[in-house]
Amino acid sequence: MLIFLDIDGVMVPAKGHKAPDFLKDGFAAFSSQAAQTLDRLIKEYNATIILTTSHKSNYNLAEWKAIFNARGVDTRLIASLPANTQFLSRKDEILNWFSRNQADSNFVIIDDDTSLNALPAKLKKHFVLTSSYVGLTPAHFEEIKTILSSAG
User: Fold this and answer.
1) How distant is the alpha carbon of residue 19 from its chain centre?
2) How many domains does the chain contain in total?
């Protein structure tokens, strides 16, 4: 399974005017429920993370793996959308990826960006919208199970 993953508003909830806590590696701490939920998804579905976050080009894949592992998420496989040198919207970045890559129906897109509601229906049915103030939760895990079981 592929998990197209944003970070801000998914793994790192927005806290209004308060800056997030940072770990020794200089990257923001993930919420514990987001880390646990993502780790469970990865383990139960043997998932690969594909980073969609605007931070994706700030670190190489080995550094990303270390960032996730330091936050309790066992990232077996991790990849990234290409650098966004054309300043495309997240929606267009995802559409470009799907136009260039073969993917079966075994994927989810997890993001807090409401503009992804405008994805074509075949992709939108795989979209899980998080609240930017809460992030990824165990309830989203159940939503993802439903998406994957009906996507065949």
Assistant:
1) 21
2) 1
